[in-house]
């Protein structure tokens, strides 16, 4: 018989925390889709929607923080649960920053409007968006399922994100050199590309957390070093 | 008579945690100085030193995480201490990202080397560095001293950082339009400017945490929204 008392059990709370992170992840994915669509279609309404979504995402981060702190204080979790709860604080922080990136992509559309931007300039941004979206999705899946192998795959694929970013960077530079009127719009697209590449970095962070939770080991500092922060352009 | 037993007292641990953050902050400040100097002087040795420092800074973040988690688990702190300890996890995360920015500034110097970069292009970067350095220093002071007034001042001054960044952005665009040979080096400087602006954002985050610790209140979401993530260019 289902109980309807207000104080939920510890395991219920752990599940609730995991579900809140999954829900936050879902909202962040929608925000990236909307933010990029706002950018590609120069759609003000969608841009506003993304800004509004970011506000909700920020609120969810605070909620996860509160839940985690309250659980630690009341439940005095054992080592492995404690690590899982603290990790949720870090993952929520990564997701909050991805929400910021989505908002920045959306807002960038307002700056690009009216500039001399040829449709072909967008192709690379579209491809990079598709790639980082799949990285984030897989990282969140690996985190939810505590799947270390999937987490390693996400980390390894970060090289693809970086390669695509580098190639886009160079492509945009050539448009800028061809015609000075392309400089301002392509500079904005360069920053969009950088935002997308950083979303890929956050996906890698989340995958690394998933790996740590499952194995108790950090992915080697050297690998981390290379994958997360190397500048290739 | 001084005790030399290994298990330190709870208040000693709280002090030790605060000192570790202060030390991490100090190392991050040096990393920004070195990273920017590496960029301005195209100094490979200094660039390597900054990359090495970032590795140590990452280690300090892990150390602070471990300390915080271990304290929560063993000491079962009361609400206000608990909040202070959890906040230290967030501040360490901001500092770790500032360390990444410093490394990226340093590494950017290796990309700029040999390009057609006129000394005058650097002036804006120098000024922006000085401003964000003072922002970070004041934010760390406000955090260490739990000084809400100082924290508000740091948040208010973030507008100056953004204004200087916007002006630098526009200046670099004009160099690019004047001569296509300036496009590649100035694009690298644009990213340096963006990294510095982001260091300013992290300083604001730290100041906001300081305000929250002292007052128990969040700086209003609207203010936060405006100051942290608005794109002005």
Automatic annotation (TrEMBL), chains A, B:
This protein's GO CC annotations: cytoplasm
Subcellular location(s) per record: Cytoplasm
InterPro entries tied to this protein: PhoU, PhoU-like_sf, PhoU_dom
Domain PhoU as annotated: residue spans: 21-108, 128-209
Main location: cytoplasm
GO BP term, example: phosphate ion transport
Record SUPFAM superfamilies: PhoU-like
A Pfam match: PhoU
Role, per record: Plays a role in the regulation of phosphate uptake.
Membership in a protein family: Belongs to the PhoU family.
SUBUNIT field: Homodimer.
Protein name per the record: Phosphate-specific transport system accessory protein PhoU
Source organism of the structure: Devosia pacifica
């Amino acid at each position: 018989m289902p109980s309807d008392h207000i104080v939920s059990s510890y395991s219920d709370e752990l599940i609730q925390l995991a579900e809140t992170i999954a829900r936050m992840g879902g909202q962040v994915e929608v925000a990236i889709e909307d933010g990029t669509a706002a950018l590609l279609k120069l759609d003000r309404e969608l841009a506003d929607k993304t800004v509004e979504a970011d506000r909700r995402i920020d609120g969810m981060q605070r909620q996860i923080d509160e839940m985690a702190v309250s659980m630690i204080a009341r439940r005095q979790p054992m080592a492995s649960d404690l690590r899982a709860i603290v990790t949720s604080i870090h993952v929520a922080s990564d997701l909050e920053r991805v929400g910021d990136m989505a908002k920045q992509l959306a807002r960038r559309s307002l700056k690009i409007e009216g500039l001399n931007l040829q449709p072909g300039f967008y192709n690379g941004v579209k491809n990079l968006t598709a790639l980082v979206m799949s990285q984030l999705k897989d990282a969140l899946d690996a985190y939810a399922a505590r799947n270390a192998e999937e987490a390693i795959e996400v980390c390894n694929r970060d090289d693809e994100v970086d390669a695509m970013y580098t190639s886009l960077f160079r492509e945009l530079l050539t448009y800028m050199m061809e015609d000075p009127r392309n400089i301002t719009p392509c500079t904005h697209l360069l920053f969009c590309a950088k935002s997308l590449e950083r979303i890929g970095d956050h996906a890698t962070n989340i995958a690394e957390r998933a790996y740590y939770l499952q194995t108790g080991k950090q992915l080697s500092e050297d690998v981390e070093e290379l994958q997360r922060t190397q500048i290739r352009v």
